[in-house]
Each structure stands twice: as structure tokens, then as C-alpha cells.
Amino acid sequence: MDNDASKAFKQLKEFLTKPHVLTVPDDGETLLLYIAVTIRVVSMVLVIKCYALGQVYKVQRPVNFISEVLGYSKVRYPQVLYAILITSRKLRH
Questions:
Q1: What is the pLDDT of residue 1?
Q2: Is the entire prediction scored with pTM above 0.70?
Q3: Which in 17, 42, 74, 86 has the greatest CB count within 10 A?
Q4: Which residues, 6+ apart, have CB-to-CB distance to 81 below 8 Å?
Q5: Does residue 37 contact residue 78 with C-beta atoms inside 8 Å?
């Protein structure tokens, strides 16, 4: 068990030390928006599905991500709607 745990921990450390590279989407490509919401934080990531080198199936690559800690006045907003509002404002282009 200890050997499996240490191997998994090394794999996790290796994964976390590699920077995530943002991808540029092609014209007409479908974008997916993932929203994560808590009481104090809203986070969004925009991803595309594409083929990676050596992969049989498509993998999801990040295009852009947004995260915001909500202040006292913004905590009263419905968080999911606020997340969509932030995303639409920051990704207008």
C-alpha cells in the first residue's frame, strides 16, 4: 500500500508542477464552459476538445479561465448567475 501511495503522490506532484498551457480554438470549434461555485468563490474555465499527441480519444484543453473571490456585497448575488455575468463581460471579444 505504501508503495502505491508514494507512486500516486509522485505522479500528482509531477502533474502539478507542469504549467497548463492555454490553447487557441479554431474558427467554428465548439467551446465548453465549466462553472464551479462556492459561497465565496466563483470559477469558470472555457475548454475545447481536441486530439492530443498519442491519445486515441479527444482531450479537453483550457482556452481561458476566470476566478473571483466574492466580496461582502457580491455574496448576496445568485452565484451561478454572477459567474455567467463575469464570464460574458471578460470574454466579450
A1: 56
A2: no
A3: 42
A4: none
A5: no
Give a three-class secondary structure readout of the chain. Answer: CHHHHHHHHHHHHHHHHCCCCCCCCCCCCCEEEEEEECCCEEEEEEEEEEECCCCCCEEEEEEEEEEEECCCCHHHCCHHHHHHHHHHHHCCC
Percent of the chain with pLDDT over 70: 98
Q: Which residues have a Cβ under 8 Å from the Cβ of 15 and sit 6 or more positions away?
A: none
Contact 70, 42 (CB under 8 A): yes
Q: Which amino acid is at 60?
A: Q
Beta partners for 85? Answer: none
